[in-house]
Amino acid sequence: MDTVDFTIQNLGVASIRTPIILSNKVKDYVAGYVSDNDMIINDVTRVPGTNQVYTKKNLLEKAGPRDMIYFDPVKVHAAIVTCGGLCPGLNNVIRSVVMSLWHVYGVRVISGIRNGYRGFLPESNLPVIELNPDVVSDIHKDGGSILGSSRGMGERVTEIVDSLERMNVSILFSIGGDGTQKGSLSISEEISKRGLKISVIGIPKTIDNDLCFIQRSFGFETAVSKAVEAVSCAHTEARCAINGISIVKLMGRESGFIAAHTSIASNDVNFTLIPELPFDLDGPNGLLVHLKNRVLRRKHAVIVVAEGAGQEHLSNDNAGKDASGNTLLGDIGLYLKDRVSKYFKSEKIDANIRYIDPSYIIRSTAADPGDSIYCTRLGTNAVHAAMAGKTNMLVSLINNTFVHVPIQLAVEKRNTIDPEGELWRDVIQATGQPPLMKNV
Amino acid sequence: MDTVDFTIQNLGVASIRTPIILSNKVKDYVAGYVSDNDMIINDVTRVPGTNQVYTKKNLLEKAGPRDMIYFDPVKVHAAIVTCGGLCPGLNNVIRSVVMSLWHVYGVRVISGIRNGYRGFLPESNLPVIELNPDVVSDIHKDGGSILGSSRGMGERVTEIVDSLERMNVSILFSIGGDGTQKGSLSISEEISKRGLKISVIGIPKTIDNDLCFIQRSFGFETAVSKAVEAVSCAHTEARCAINGISIVKLMGRESGFIAAHTSIASNDVNFTLIPELPFDLDGPNGLLVHLKNRVLRRKHAVIVVAEGAGQEHLSNDNAGKDASGNTLLGDIGLYLKDRVSKYFKSEKIDANIRYIDPSYIIRSTAADPGDSIYCTRLGTNAVHAAMAGKTNMLVSLINNTFVHVPIQLAVEKRNTIDPEGELWRDVIQATGQPPLMKNV
Amino acid sequence: MDTVDFTIQNLGVASIRTPIILSNKVKDYVAGYVSDNDMIINDVTRVPGTNQVYTKKNLLEKAGPRDMIYFDPVKVHAAIVTCGGLCPGLNNVIRSVVMSLWHVYGVRVISGIRNGYRGFLPESNLPVIELNPDVVSDIHKDGGSILGSSRGMGERVTEIVDSLERMNVSILFSIGGDGTQKGSLSISEEISKRGLKISVIGIPKTIDNDLCFIQRSFGFETAVSKAVEAVSCAHTEARCAINGISIVKLMGRESGFIAAHTSIASNDVNFTLIPELPFDLDGPNGLLVHLKNRVLRRKHAVIVVAEGAGQEHLSNDNAGKDASGNTLLGDIGLYLKDRVSKYFKSEKIDANIRYIDPSYIIRSTAADPGDSIYCTRLGTNAVHAAMAGKTNMLVSLINNTFVHVPIQLAVEKRNTIDPEGELWRDVIQATGQPPLMKNV
Amino acid sequence: MDTVDFTIQNLGVASIRTPIILSNKVKDYVAGYVSDNDMIINDVTRVPGTNQVYTKKNLLEKAGPRDMIYFDPVKVHAAIVTCGGLCPGLNNVIRSVVMSLWHVYGVRVISGIRNGYRGFLPESNLPVIELNPDVVSDIHKDGGSILGSSRGMGERVTEIVDSLERMNVSILFSIGGDGTQKGSLSISEEISKRGLKISVIGIPKTIDNDLCFIQRSFGFETAVSKAVEAVSCAHTEARCAINGISIVKLMGRESGFIAAHTSIASNDVNFTLIPELPFDLDGPNGLLVHLKNRVLRRKHAVIVVAEGAGQEHLSNDNAGKDASGNTLLGDIGLYLKDRVSKYFKSEKIDANIRYIDPSYIIRSTAADPGDSIYCTRLGTNAVHAAMAGKTNMLVSLINNTFVHVPIQLAVEKRNTIDPEGELWRDVIQATGQPPLMKNV
Questions:
Q1: Out of B32, B44, B52, whose CB is closest to A420?
Q2: What is the mean pLDDT of residues D166-190?
Q3: What residues form DSSP beta bridges with A356?
Q4: Does the beta-carbon distance from A31 to B264 stay under 8 Å?
Q5: Cβ contacts of residue D89 below 8 Å, gap of 6+?
Q6: C-alpha separations of B150 from A61, B155, C242, C248 in Å
Q7: For an interface test with D, which of A360, A363, A365 has the most D Cβ atoms less than 10 Å from its Cβ?
Q8: Suppose A306 and one of A259, B135, B245, D149 were both cysteines; which one would form an S-S bond, judging by CB atoms 3.0 to 4.6 Å apart?
Q9: Which of C129, C233, C243 has the most B C-beta neighbours within 10 Å, making it the best mutation to test the interface with B?
């Protein structure tokens, strides 16, 4: 059967009646339980010449409360960990997981692990935070994570599972991105190897929106909103100076989604540079000439550059990796600023160049209402999955439906902008930049 | 063939090469043209026991630039009209339509019709506004519509089409909700009857999110954000008074989407009342008793009520219709305030009741960045459809893909919250209210 | 001596050395103590023909830390009460008082009285809230008051002082407006009569800015900011409708400061109506004719009306008083809406009238940074005054200097807009309305 | 006479009746004209032992409309120029000046000079912008200046006055800071030398608040609000990392007002560093040790540093000057980041250091409502002064009264924070930092 890779792993038979009172009767105005047989299609593209979609690896299990659960709520010890860089909505997800465990299922032992996977390591000496509705009640109003975060340590799987065993944790909610979820996968496999009954539920967090099998990552919308504010300031600076050129560096190590969405939203960007699309600086079809022409014509310009763009221009000979295992990037923003500055000097054009890097201000902001709703629902559905005994999976949103996705699938490759797709087409139209700035 | 009802009508054969330079080659970093054969599935639910979805009426034509177009840009006279109540994003859509027509296709004659369909009627004496990039450049920063709006007149089809003929309009973009699009349908039919070659492209606008065949209506996200602010104030007022009870009336005539989303986002709401779910006020399972218990237990309460909720409690004997054809609703907010007030007096509980109606403040606000992106892309895709000679259709977003939808389909019935579905289940969980407040 | 009325009352000789380490040496980069002899001029107007100001009742004692204090911090029991309507900044003031008492002076017993003066009355059964830095640390991010509030009860002086005695309160911080401070005065007098050593320090709170001897009341700036947002929405609504007229009712029972400042800030208001200036509705120089002319000329209009304006048009025969002793006002907003509506019907002009009352949304908002700074400094200076044994006084800001003001002075009369002064002159210029809309 | 230095210069006798209809009658509800004899006291401090203030150089002429004016409105050509760095409120001031000239006095020729004083120089080839109510109507919603700005050129006095003569300018409004106003002074003197009748009215603009004889500079309040947002993000970043240390650099070349106000407003700052107060980094009473102790105790810290602070730590041997004549500063923010980083490494403490520089985002933002009111009133009063024939003066706010100040006075010295004054005392209390971090 071709859907095998999408099958969600279970810790065992769910044989306990859920405390949630719903009804599968219709027309009684009461919601029903979700069954493991409720599935949706992932890829909605029609197979040409048919009225059907592709069927290979295309069915996803719907999320939601099951009528029978695996864990006895009074015996559950749940743990929550937040890893990697900050992202709007972390506190909302924590809050939702705690509220759902406590109020919906009656779980009373919930531990917050401090500062990412590091909090599991004895050497770190980071005591857990006991979580309950009082503790989390107002945390969604603040950015960041009340648990703190840190990068890496996901590879110290043995010690982490030792720690889970020692603490008698029955459910681990790991909130994090690609690196974190690769860690979750290894942890899950180690748990399985040891024959433990610990559910590992990932909640995908990536401000760059670069995880596959998730329609939109939480915090992304808020990040774009804040980025638009920064671009608006950059535009003002550019317009008010003589030949003003503002360069705004936005997050996006391997995917330019924030840069692309910000550019469409703000209507003020003239050049958007993303990791997915190479570009030349010099030559008749290079960025610098196009920039000069724009400045001569309109007296100002705004450039948005994703942090992972144009890495081919930077000498990365000594490039190391950060604690999350990400390749350390050269700073394309400062490099661009320098190159643009030299170029305009060489062209004897008096230009005023401003460089703005709003990254910390973007990522530490509190979730906006759209992300707040999304985080609440992600957290709730993560709890439903965990209590039903699912494991080694992510909770996700696909085609506007909350679903379960095997972690393996989501970390196989990164989600990137298709330079030949609709989003990038609309960016090109919004900025008016050449479709490709490469000399032949 | 079972997809017949989804077929998009064309004015004729598209035989002019588009001025947009794209490429259907792969790996050349240039986006491709979209074909009428590119289709997606609408309903993603799996047919139980199969790996497939339902095939009846389930394929939608993808939106986007076609390689061949119907209209010669230099001969096009486009008209834009905005109808009905204000909604965040109207100016963004207008801006996007004008920018796309002008910069992408080279159209130079674009008329803004003033104050809705009324602007077509000679008696109104409302001159059109000549639109171009200079005029629309900054309008997205403001709420409302630079064209103004008004309700009704969509039934004066003959005169409107007379006016379109007189003005030699080739494309009409009608931005509006259910009533407006019913008007668009009639106009389109009258055009067809007269054998005219005028494309009618609807851009669905409904702050209530109550149109079918659209994943999310523009302005909805912004409206929820503003509603969350109002609820936050209501919550503060309630908490700071002795037995404080705040009642917030939100928009939602036939659908409680704004009320539902706001309740999940704000985490402060205790009772959400929507048109889709009847409720009793009195009796052992009525709202008033539940409210009293909440107030006695927690000393304050917040109620969010959609304007169309609980109409069964209001005597609508003389209920008329407004100019859009909507039934005039009794004011459930004031009614609730009065009933709650009397009830607490009769129970001899000293309660402080505040009533907040933020509707005008919500609907006249400027679009947030998320809606800004969406409006830009809706407008662009509307222009692609129009230039290709499509007509009698709406541009829409389904499963995160921009598509074409026959107007007929979208206005057949209203989109409402399924009280047995996932959204409402999550609202019940967020508020902690009884699933159903009805006495047997 | 003509400054007698400005003399601040002391509980006794301040004979304890303050724990605050400052230095009156100059050029040592350390701030100095403030002395009771440090005074500033209140009224800065020059006496014509001289180089001096008026000297009668014109000197105010500067606020700030004294080198000798009256109370022994380890024996102090401080109480804080917030009374009357909500106002941005209440939590900031509470926070500042607690932080200053705790961290600066080492006071460890601080009680928050619940729901205004009512919290002192045994019948209310409202337990006090124990306050300390942990409790107040984040409260400034929220609107409202963590202590709650209520109107009235200030006249039950005997019981309140009984309660203060029973609790062994040494300092009472009363945060409230005119009615509250009249209560503080009576309480202070009763304390004096009983020979108790309880300091009563008022912190003036009036969102209407209607207290005398205070340059600007806290929360006022924030209130104007939120009011400007509401007016911006009203303007959008008016512009987008055919002959759109928006009426915004703002707070201001006896003083139109919010209405006046909002009108200048927003640049969108055409008519501002305040309690200080009578106006006619009918007749050749009445509001209605001027409004009609404006609408005919510009197609829309925005009216801002303070809640206390135009009371002469409302029949107040049965007007009672609210619990704060304020005369209950007729609703000028609804009255205006009704009169404008009838007038335009009688003139056969199709007008679209919207009525917006954003009061609850304005007053329950959190303090903006400007008010945050101000509240912090008011609270700190209130604590300095209390610890020094001052009583029966308000802490205030005059000519940008924090000062002590006898309560008696501040409650003698209300602060109002001088219709012949500079502020109103600038409003008239901003709105373009006739200086006086009265028929002779 | 000891007020001589405060005397405002006039171009000649004001002999034309103003078109503004006011009335000096009392109780007629109509504002009166202001006379040159209306004066207020500047320094409100009491002379010890008296009931009076100091009289030397202490009287300022009140601003406002005079009954007789010098210029005939129909013959006036007014010019407006904005110089130096961006500051919130520039567009509001421009708008107010244009609206007042046009609507209040009937002036019809108003030129906007492009890009600062540079716009006067023929070589710049920058055409003027013709200003009128239509052009400026909505500009206050945007940050920046529609005229653009640039630094310097104020010393090319002869050419600027040549240009004024050539253009027949009768009034020059120069909006700018210390450098700009020194330019205005020279221009004014050159005009006087040539016997021209050109009024030069300065409108003080300094986001750093470092001009004397002005209670508060416009844009300052907005700047602090934005800075508070950045600090809030810095605080979140610091709290969520292991031993997180955030360093925020704020504007303030010679005065730490933004840093000081932001620190009080945000309640999250632990160390505030300003130009007025030297500090050591090393040693037992140096910043680094205090920072380490804070981090060990509380696990995170936030440092706010004004750009001009700690310059003694940077080697400025080659320090040049920017085009405004300001000494180029070393980057204290990056220096601190580097020193803190090295110190914690040497102490073997694993610290996470973030550096945030939000300057461009702060200065290019639009004015908040408080600044909007202030800018409107500054602009109006500048116009009244100009039309009355005043020259070589600034319009200013002192003791909450709009006044006229000779430019000479305002540029004599910079306004700085008194480290022994009340503001800094309150900062020390808010941050809890040592009063002085200097080793003896």
A1: B32
A2: 96
A3: A248
A4: no
A5: D205, D218, D219, D222, D367, D371, D372, D374, D375
A6: 46, 14, 7, 21
A7: A360
A8: A259
A9: C233
Work out the mean pLDDT of chain C and round it to a whole number.
93
Q: Does the beta carbon of B143 lie under 8 angstroms from any beta carbon of chain C?
A: yes
The amino acid present at C339, given as its one-letter code, is R
Indicate the residue of A118, A145, A240 with minimum beta-carbon distance to D240: A145
Q: What are phi and psi of A265, to 5 degrees?
A: -65, -35
Instruction: Indicate which of B420, B437, B439, B440 best probes the interface with A, i.e. most A CBs within 10 Å of its own CB.
Output: B420
Helices C257-266 and D369-387 pack at an angle, to 10 degrees, of 80
Q: How confident is the model at residue C318 (pLDDT cuts 50, 70, 90)?
A: low
3-class state of residue C181 by DSSP: helix
How would residue D176 be classed by pLDDT, with cut points 50, 70 and 90? very high
What six digits make up the tokens of B216?
């999310």
CB pair distance less than 8 Å for C240 and B358: no
CA distances from C323 to B338, C326, D139 (A): 21, 7, 45
Residue of A nearest to B59 (CA): A51
Q: What is the average pLDDT across D362-390?
A: 97
Touching D (3+ Cβ pairs <8 A), the chains are A, C
The gap from C-alpha C369 to its chain's centroid, in whole angstroms, comes to: 17
What residue ranges in B145-299 does DSSP mark as E strands?
A: 171-176, 199-204, 244-250, 271-273
ipTM reported for the complex surpasses 0.90:
yes
Using the predicted structure, report yes or no on whether residue D433 has a pLDDT greater than 50: yes
The pair phi, psi for residue D257, each rounded to 5°, is -60, -45
pLDDT per residue as tens digits for the range A268-298? 999 999 999 999 999 999 999 999 999 999 9
- Determine the pLDDT at residue D3: 44
Q: Do residue A144 and residue D365 have CB atoms under 8 angstroms apart?
A: no
Cα separation, D181 vs A139, in Å, equals 49
Considering only A47-56, A217-226, B390-399, C139-148, which range has the smallest mean pLDDT? A47-56
> Could you confirm whether B208 is annotated as catalytic?
yes
At residue A2, does pLDDT exceed 50?
no
CB contact under 8 A, A376 and B265: yes
| pLDDT at residue D24, rounded to an integer | 87
pLDDT digits (tens, 9 = 90+) for B43-92: 999 888 888 888 777 899 999 999 999 999 999 999 999 999 999 999 99
CA distance B177 to C198: 65
Instruction: Determine the Cα–Cα distance for residues B319 and B308; give it in Å rounded to an integer.
Output: 13
Tell me which DSSP letter residue D137 carries.
T
What residues are paired with A406 via a beta bridge? Answer: A393
pLDDT higher than threshold 70 for residue A320: no
d(CA C18, CA C383): 12
Catalytic residue selected from B208, B210, B280, B368: B208
Greater confidence (D314 vs A431) lies with A431
What pLDDT is stored for residue A1 in this prediction? 37
Q: Report the alpha-carbon distance of residue B409 to residue B394 in Å, rounded.
A: 10
Rg (CA), chain B: 24
C67 — contact with chain B (CB < 8 Å)? no
Q: How far apart are CA D419 and CA C29, in angstroms?
A: 5
Residue D330 near chain C (CB below 8 Å): no
**Residue B389: other Cβ atoms inside 10 A:** 23
Considering only residues 148 to 207 of chain D, which have any Cβ-Cβ distance to chain C shorter than 8 Å? none
Nearest residue of D to residue A237 by CA position?
D364
For the beta carbon of residue D398, count every other beta carbon within 10 angstroms.
21
What's the CA gap between C309 and C437, in Å, rounded? Answer: 13
Each residue of B146-205: pLDDT tens digit?
999 988 887 899 999 999 999 999 999 999 999 999 999 999 999 999 999 999 999 999
